[in-house]
Specification:
By secondary structure, the chain is an alpha+beta fold. The chain has helices spanning 2-25, 32-38, 44-47, 49-57, 69-85, 99-109, 118-130, 133-136, 143-149, 155-158, 191-198, 215-227, 234-240, 254-260, and strands spanning 165-168, 172-173, 181-184, 261-275, 278-291. The structure holds heme C (5 copies).
Length: 300
């Protein structure tokens, strides 16, 4: 009887813990492949071929690797940060890494990691350490991240983004089997939409705040007040102008680089009579640089 009681008590203790753990993990991706499948956009190519091609050329489509610099810096955040300087992070090896740790970077570089288990955070960390770009490029800031997950900011007013809907301008049926509805995103043309990742300053909501991109802060507090009625939105310069589209280009695009700054140089040459018969040629130079971007440059 005593034994029986003990078994019962043990079961009673184990079950709630197991149930809680299962609930916590329910519906979450357990591998990078599962996360990629959850956010699969291969079907979009069929009907939105031009948009898909442009997005494939954009840096958003390889947001964990970037130009290579992103992957290398995330590696430093793991080895020099989590495993060394952030002494109280609890991370000694890859197996100690949780979603929360990776969110220091993936909050913006891969926000859908919130829908994955700690095992996925570890797989991504390992891929970063191994320089395994193939694995990292399976997941990125893709169509679903912008047209569903990030399409609503004020969730206590407008609710959570609905599963199975693509958010854009239109409302109505949508001919994709996984996304059968179109809904209107109120922020699709607003800077706040991009501002969700393009940063204001330190990310204070993190246990160990990081600061990467802060350009949205500079847009809000500097460019908009200074430009007044002339102020443009992010997508006007980066998407709709000259049909830049979903490439969302910046300085790597020679045309945008040229647009970024006006440099005006005025010079006046003169000679200094140093001593009788000794002239030293001199010049006065005035350089005026004007930043034409909607924010400070460079950033990130
Ligand atoms: C889900 C987060 C997220 C959203 C939303 C987002 N971006 Fe980005 N964006 C990023 C990240 C992360 C990078 C940098 C990727 C890298 O280099 O690793 C980036 C890079 C860029 C770049 C640099 C491109 C280059 O070639 O260097 C531009 C321009 C840009 N974004 C514009 C926009 C605009 C405009 C919007 C809104 C319409 C927007 N982004 C919305 C996260 C986001
Ligand atoms: C607040 C959102 C946010 C967070 C958090 C964030 N980043 Fe970024 N990061 C961006 C955006 C947006 C860019 C786009 C480039 C820009 O603004 O110039 C970027 C650009 C970069 C770049 C330059 C990319 C290139 O190829 O030139 C590196 C490197 C980078 N991030 C690494 C990191 C690392 C490492 C972490 C974590 C420690 C991190 N970021 C956290 C949003 C963020
Ligand atoms: C970084 C965020 C971002 C990503 C990634 C993204 N979009 Fe968009 N998309 C936008 C914004 C912003 C608009 C403009 C909304 C407006 O002007 O009404 C837009 C507009 C559109 C439109 C309307 C036509 C147009 O070009 O303006 C379609 C269709 C579309 N996106 C499909 C896609 C598909 C398919 C993908 C993936 C291949 C994708 N988008 C990836 C932000 C994004
Ligand atoms: C079978 C064809 C088909 C597929 C597949 C498809 N779409 Fe669409 N999509 C359409 C059509 C048609 C429209 C309506 C366009 C219009 O009326 O201007 C549309 C509209 C949209 C819009 C709204 C554009 C706006 O201006 O409001 C977005 C966003 C969008 N699709 C994203 C996606 C994404 C993301 C995927 C992949 C998950 C996808 N679509 C797959 C055909 C398709
Ligand atoms: C008036 C036009 C204009 C507006 C508005 C604008 N940008 Fe830019 N942006 C530019 C130009 C031009 C560049 C190229 C200079 C560069 O990359 O250094 C640029 C560069 C960038 C870069 C790369 C920064 C770097 O050098 O590391 C990002 C990211 C970016 N913009 C995002 C945004 C976002 C997000 C918004 C809205 C909050 C926005 N831009 C508003 C014109 C604009």
């Amino acid at each position: 009887m005593k034994k029986m009681l003990l078994v019962l008590v043990t079961i009673a203790l184990i079950v709630p813990v197991a149930v809680l753990a299962a609930q916590h993990q329910a519906g979450k991706a357990k591998t990078v492949d599962e996360l990629a499948k959850m956010y699969d956009v291969s079907s979009c190519k069929e009907c939105h071929a031009k948009v898909f091609e442009e997005w494939s050329q954009s840096i958003h489509s390889r947001s964990l690797v970037g130009t290579g610099r992103t992957m290398a810096t995330i590696r430093n955040a793991i080895t020099d940060g989590m495993m060394k300087e952030w002494k109280k992070s609890g991370v000694k090896e890859v197996k100690d890494i949780r979603v929360e740790h990776m969110m220091s970077c993936t909050k913006c570089h891969l926000p859908q990691l919130q829908d994955a288990t700690d095992e996925v955070a570890q797989q991504i960390a390992k891929a970063v350490l191994d320089g395994d770009e193939e694995t990292l490029n399976k997941v990125s800031i893709n169509c679903i991240v912008c047209h569903n997950m990030k399409a609503i900011v004020h969730k206590w007013v407008d609710g959570e983004p609905e599963k199975g809907a693509v958010y854009g301008k239109l409302e109505g049926p949508h001919p994709d089997k996984n996304y059968p509805a179109m809904k209107t995103s109120l922020i699709r043309q607003e800077a706040i939409f991009c501002g969700q990742c393009h940063g204001l300053g330190p990310n204070f909501e993190l246990k160990n705040p990081t600061q990467c991109a802060t350009l949205y802060g500079s847009y809000l507090h500097n460019y908009v007040p200074e430009s007044g009625l002339e102020a443009q939105k992010c997508h006007e310069c980066h998407k709709n102008k000259k049909d830049r589209g979903h490439r969302f280009p910046a300085y790597r695009d020679p045309e945008m680089l040229k647009e970024a700054v006006n440099v005006e140089v005025q010079t006046k040459g003169y000679q200094l009579l140093y001593a009788a018969g000794q002239h030293i040629p001199l010049a006065g130079v005035v350089v005026t640089m004007t930043n034409n971007a909607g924010h400070r440059i460079p950033d990130g």
